Predict the structure.
Amino acid sequence: MEYGTGFLVPHRAVIQRLIDGHAQRVACSWNQKSRGIWSAHRHSPRWGASLQWTATGASDHIGSQITALSHVDLGVYGRLHCRLGGGLGWTQKRWDALSTEGRERVVIGSAINGAAQIGLSLLPLSAPARWHEHLGLHLRLDHQSNASFTQPNLGTNVVTFGLSAQLLPTAPRRITPDTMRAVLSVLPAPVRGGLLFVGIGRRQPAPLDPRENVVECGYEYRIGGRATFGLVAGAMMMWRPAHFGSSLHGGFQLRFTGVQVDLLHGRYLQRWQAEEGHYNRVVLNVHVSGGWWSRLALHTHGFRAHHPALGIAWLPSNAHPRHPLR
């Protein structure tokens, strides 16, 4: 169990006047030490799931939020871990054109949204011997937005500092020397080389505009011999009604065996819209079978979401993350 207090970040000037108090967060989490191939590459990783309720501190215009998250805590030093999480969230009060009160709720236009969480944690010990080893300290940033599928989409960012109590500690998992040698003998090499991808997205340009489809396709090349981290470079073409764009991009990749996260920055060769010369992308790649991957991408201009896209990718080499060492 975890309780935290903090504030709603006024990342846009219009949000400042909506804040009427401090934010509060209550969470119930289940965590365990990670198993499998990817965990052997990292120091004391943990993964789990959380259900949390947050009072945003803007009671009239945003209200409360409920979030369901899957997350991983990556070891930094000792008990200090870095939190990466994602899932779905619900926001109580959203924009509505049908009433004066609803039109004043300019932060978000959808009740169901994507949710993300990052932070630092001093985690409880797996097998605590003293009372204070059951406790943890946490600094969290919780984000909700709909990736511009529906407007408005300023999004919410809530920062909290909290205290947790571990209610059901478990003994740490033991690995004998023989077991460790068996694991190391089958660790896969990182997936490298070129891939082709295609995706379809959906966006709403403005609150009262109709939604439009977005199509994107391209080629990317992955390099780097580390199983936890790699580099990505690629080219992409994009279409939406009456507009065509092309670009080059590059960045890095966080690798978790069957799940890989791309963090990319790109420059337009042919601008998709006149006022934007560059973009950022976050791409979640999930291995399906053989050389095939599913992809969920968020395309942004600065910190403003342009569209989400769902797609597939194929590696002609048919390399996949569970190959033995090559």
In short: The first helix runs from residue 13 to 16. The chain has a mean pLDDT of 90. Residues 267 and 278 are 4 Å apart (CA to CA).
